[in-house]
TrEMBL record:
One of its GO terms (molecular function) is ATP binding. It comes from the Bacteria. This is Phosphoribosylformylglycinamidine synthase. GO terms for cellular component: cytoplasm. One of its GO terms (biological process) is purine nucleotide biosynthetic process. Residues 175-222 form the Phosphoribosylformylglycinamidine synthase linker domain. Keywords: ATP-binding, Ligase, Nucleotide-binding, Purine biosynthesis.
Length: 267
């Protein structure tokens, strides 16, 4: 893995806003610096010419402040197991610029924080502050940049597991909900319990994940598929049915639509 530090990740205004948030939460932070860190997974060592091209590609934005030796660092990267949109674009650009040895480029953020009086932050303080420096839905915090190697790891896919609903009851669903971060509401847990109890089998982790995804605030399938009433009048079509109506009236060229989270059209 090759690491290259880049430009400032936050404007001066955003840095001051971040400082106000940290101080308001009770953390004695004197100053903060946010800097992009570029991480490259290489298939072969880069030549000096290739290194020059890569450096030019990653030269953008305003320069970050110098690194203070007494500052604590919090390393934030895209959520482990995911590939960020920035990575997809940057990797494609690198390949088109002749950098075939670069298998993937990813970008993280280094937050360097100085404590009032030059003291050292405790581990507990850094862990607490990291919660304000990243979005756990899309980002992960690493102990250091050496650990960023895990971004490019290709572990074996985990085996399908069953949630012991038959043995542990609704508590098994509640435990899986918390462990997997599904954010299922009590009514949804009740629905799943009744449904799989009726089937007489335990649900799989994949089934719960797909159910949570389809019913999330992002997809809102249950909202769009709900009965739709306008000015007190029940409508013949749900909101989602209205979306599908266009395809129903004009299906030409469509091989598959609204199935398995995908669509296929004739080319």
């Amino acid at each position: 893995m090759l690491l290259l530090r880049g430009p400032a990740a936050l404007s001066a205004f955003r840095v001051q806003h971040l400082l106000r948030i940290l101080v308001a939460e009770g953390f004695p932070v004197q100053s903060a610096v946010a800097q992009y860190v570029h991480l490259m997974d290489l298939g072969a060592p880069l030549t000096s010419a290739e290194m020059g091209v890569l450096t030019a590609l990653l030269h953008y934005g305003e320069a970050a402040e110098g690194r203070a030796e007494d500052a604590a660092e919090v390393c934030v990267v895209p959520r482990l197991g995911t590939i960020s949109p920035w990575s997809s674009k940057a990797t494609d650009i690198a390949g088109r610029c002749g950098l075939g040895a670069v298998r993937r480029i990813e970008r993280g953020v280094s937050y360097r924080l100085r404590k009032v009086g030059g003291a050292t932050f405790s581990v507990a303080e850094l862990q607490a502050m990291s919660g304000l420096l990243h979005d756990p839905m899309t980002e992960s915090v690493l102990p250091d940049w050496a650990a960023a190697e895990t971004i490019f790891a290709h572990p074996e896919p985990a085996s399908l597991t069953r949630i012991p609903l038959h043995k542990e009851g609704r508590a098994a669903l509640l435990s899986a909900n918390n462990r997997m971060g599904l954010a299922l509401a009590p009514a949804e847990l009740d629905y799943l319990f009744d449904y799989f109890s009726g089937l007489g089998r335990d649900p799989s982790d994949a089934e719960l994940m797909m159910f949570a995804q389809a019913n999330s605030e992002h997809c809102r399938h249950k909202v769009f598929n709900a009965a739709f009433r306008l000015d007190g009048q029940d409508q013949a079509l749900s909101l989602f049915a209205m979306v599908r109506e266009t395809h129903r009236l004009h299906p030409q060229g469509t091989l598959s639509a609204y199935k398995d989270n995908a669509a296929v059209m004739a080319g």
